[in-house]
Amino acid sequence: MRYLASPAQLRAGLLRWCLFTVPAIVALGFLSGRVAGSGPGNPWFDALIKPDIYPPPATFGIVWTVLYVMIGVAFAMILAARGAAGRGPAIAVFVVQLALNLAWTPLFFGAHQSVAAFWLLVALIVMVAITIALFARVRPLAAWLLAPYLAWCCFAAVLNWQIVDLNPGVDGREAPGAAVRIKL
After folding, report:
1. Residue 181 domain flag
2. Structure confidence at residue 171 (pLDDT)
3. Of 1, 77, 89, 152, which has the fewest CB atoms closer than 10 Å, so is most exposed?
4. pTM of the predicted structure, to 2 decimals
């Protein structure tokens, strides 16, 4: 049996893709947050009542950086799998889920649309699950690299929903019969 590329050539191809995808995805995530004014220091966000499970603010930067690196490596593995069956659909769905990911921060922090941001997270969770399924057909390890991302998106959806619940009318619509909550 003849191979089109040696194992060393395949590793070099993956490394080249990683050198592009990892910094690009980390930078896109950083820019999305920076443009939207996300996190502490955002007066709108600072005024919100946070749920008890809300982690220390520094956690988000650390976790998202690690996740974006893992996402970039997983994507590089798929891009480097030239000729693999299912590669094209996996790339297309990945791009869609990444666009949803990058849209959440401006929607939540910039537009203050926390309910819409929650539903965007629900769509993101579905798209990440589909991406994992498609990646598993091309490179199973790439799918496993996305598992922590899916878990974190689910946690983010819980946080988002709890913020909506604790802050009635937070996105400009008063909740019917909403009570004022005082945090002691």
Report:
1. no
2. 80
3. 1
4. 0.85
